[in-house]
Amino acid sequence: MSLKVVSTDKAPQAIGPYSQAIIANGMIFTSGQIALSPEGEIVCSDVAGQTEQVLKNLTEVLAEAGSSLDKVIKTTIFLDSMDDFATVNEVYGKYFSSHKPARSTVAVKTLPLNVKVEIDCIALID
Hints:
The chain is an alpha+beta fold. 23% of the residues lie in helices and 27% in strands. The chain has one domain (3-124): CATH 3.30.1330.40.
């Protein structure tokens, strides 16, 4: 099996010893994206704005790999509070309106850089 590292400057660089994504066997496995701009700055403090940025980042990482949100099989959403579930769903639904991948959502104690939301995904590659 061959592994290929995915990296784009249109999404924030990894803030630790990991890749933005890995391609294996015709699929892309993204690392969790948080609400950082491509320059590495947190974009806003509210969960709706952070979710928008996270999904923009995922879109760019997927595009670099030759994939898209339409090819996402599974997402995992990490929230610092389940009180934000409805707001995240509203934003998420704009990006996944007709195509609805499998999904898990969990609340965690703390996320990197104390953001409110983190999302990763698995998608197919053309």
